[in-house]
Amino acid sequence: MCGISGILNLRDKASISPDKLRVISFALNHRGPDEAGAYLDDYIGLAQSRLSIIDLSGGSQPIHNEDKSLWIIFNGEIFNYPELREDLIKCGHKFYTLTDTEVILHLYEEKNEKCLDELNGQFAFAIWDSKNRELFLARDRVGILPLFFKLENEKFYFASELKAIFAVANESPDFDPIGFEQIFTFWTNLPGDTPFKDYKEVPPAHFLKINFEGKFTLKPYWQLQFKKENEIKDLPIREITDRASELLTDAVRIRLRADVPVGSYLSGGLDSSGLTAIVKKKFNNELRTFGISFEEESFDESSFQKIMVNHLRTNHSEVIAKNSDIGKYFSDIIYFGERPVFRTAPAPLYLLSKKVREEKFKVVLTGEGADEIFGGYNIFKEAKIRKFWSNNPESKLRSKLLKKLYPYIFKDKRLFNTLEAFFKLGIDEPDNPFFSHIVRWMNNSKLRNFFSDDFREQIKDYNAIDEFLLTLPDDFDSWETLAKAQYLEITTFMSGYLLSSQGDRMAMGNSVELRVPYLDHRLIEFMSTVPAKYKIFGLNEKYILKKVFNDLLPKEILYRAKNPYRAPIRNSFFADKNFHLTDILSEEKLIQAGVFNPSKVKLLLQKAEKSDSLSELDNMALAGIISTQLLFEHFISVKKSISAKNHNFKVFFDQRTKN
């Protein structure tokens, strides 16, 4: 993967200096440390920082077509590029590299934006049409890779990460209260928004066109779609399992295409274990695997990793996540992630990618997406139970089914009534489009009690949930309860948090590319047609996926209880003596940032100091407030000047008019 960036003049030609391109490119150097390249003409400047994975010696970017009228910079991988290349050669296209990048360019030349329908991959790219003076940006279907933009003073800026635009834009960034209202509801922004005013993200499955005259178009090219409940075909379970297995195996096969070794994350859970087993047994007998263990026993699952390592005999490396390490690297994960977070879970994943890079690997497979696509999360089972419960809301027996999901919580009889009331929220509105998620979102919204009065005043009557409602597909109400829940989870949490704050950003912070076979669009589209009763059979989650892996995995892995991936929060911040918590959360700095009420934060900090453990909500608040303050320090409080004097472009295409 790589970092891409650019600056387009609007309406008036103006000089874009090569030095500015160096700065915007250097800000993304962690995404592509192998080499950099640039293109410059009278209208636009393009820059790319490359992590070389395919055609190591000949794939320098930007890349052009035969007559040099089209230029591309690309971040990501197109996994079906060999097949597409063969078809394009038959159509008369001539190639001068062996890259997937050049395949995209010729496919665009052939089909314009319709080229996106044929791409199987994870991508964000920009194509400049120098004849028509038009810029084309596109992002993959589920948002595996990021792409941001900003319009400012007759210029259009874009980049893989916001920090690159911050480095060259004239105006300093500022927090967007509306963006924070979204984050403190969904844990992330709604598609297209960011935490910063006037900075936008190309939503997943969208393309953007903007020309020199300023004509702007942003359109979807793909839609996550589920069948209406009365249109779902009830295929035999064996047929469903065979087809899912076939698609997943092929998704893994094409994601092993690279000119460098490909490793695999191995947590000991079903998803990563199954992927690793497919690779090891069908494609690569010398597989390298990487996993995390935790200092705190309650978070550690290394025993399951050992079962899988012994079962598959992989060459395995492990990184131990100590509480002090999580605190030590928390500032780094906010710098790379560019959003507030309510968990410390990204930090161990940052440590893991660091280990991968130290072992000289650039590419790993990972199991993200399996829970969303195959029906693995407890929130999906909650929705199923609560829907059943809604038919008889006064039943004391139906609510007890929740004990099967959270036996460790419901052990405390004193808490039972409180938890029952928590999950009963919205039970009288089973047809509410947000029935599956409203409990969590309303609970998250309590975090907004920490907002300052001024910040609340700027938010006014805006409601993030109401805005999300306006974006739902027209036939959403006719979907099964599980399908609705999957859509909500994929559109918000997966794309905006899981694939970003815990995914691409943590890996690329150490120049590592993640590949996610479960998010092959063919598999997504097929599983969207499978009846809910087979995804969650009774309360048995990922029923189809377990059948796919039945002959590949040990029973201890196949039938183990699902545990969500988590990391310590309160203890991580207090374990690292060099983590200056009182300074980060000082009254002066809280007032300067303007987001939170200092008195309320002080009370939270006092509670955290006095107790070895905090409630779930207080832990979330602590992480959210700390990460917001760090975000302010990194990008707003001080305008950081980036020196890129020694950042040289390996290739530089200067197409400016010579005077």
TrEMBL record:
Q: Which UniProt keywords apply?
A: Amino-acid biosynthesis, Asparagine biosynthesis, ATP-binding, Glutamine amidotransferase, Nucleotide-binding
Instruction: Name its GO BP terms in alphabetical order.
Output: asparagine biosynthetic process
| Key word Nucleotide-binding present | yes
Residues annotated as binding L-glutamine: 100
Superkingdom of this protein's organism: Bacteria
Could you state one GO cellular component term attached to this entry?
Answer: cytosol
* Record-listed ATP binding positions: 292
Task: Write down the SUPFAM superfamilies for this protein, in alphabetical order.
Answer: Adenine nucleotide alpha hydrolases-like, N-terminal nucleophile aminohydrolases (Ntn hydrolases)
UniProt xrefs under InterPro entries: Asn_synth_AEB, Asn_synthase, ASN_synthetase/amidase, AsnB_N, GATase_2_dom, Ntn_hydrolases_N, Rossmann-like_a/b/a_fold
State a single Gene Ontology molecular function.
asparagine synthase (glutamine-hydrolyzing) activity
Q: Where is this site: Important for beta-aspartyl-AMP intermediate formation?
A: 368
The catalysed reaction is:
L-aspartate + L-glutamine + ATP + H2O = L-asparagine + L-glutamate + AMP + diphosphate + H(+)
User: Which pathway?
Assistant: Amino-acid biosynthesis; L-asparagine biosynthesis; L-asparagine from L-aspartate (L-Gln route): step 1/1
Active-site positions on this chain: 2
Q: Tell me which residues make up the Glutamine amidotransferase type-2 domain.
A: 2-213
EC number in record: 6.3.5.4
Q: Into which family does the record put it?
A: Belongs to the asparagine synthetase family.
Report what the protein is called. asparagine synthase (glutamine-hydrolyzing)
Q: Which organism is it from?
A: Ignavibacterium album (strain DSM 19864 / JCM 16511 / NBRC 101810 / Mat9-16)
Gene (name only): asnB
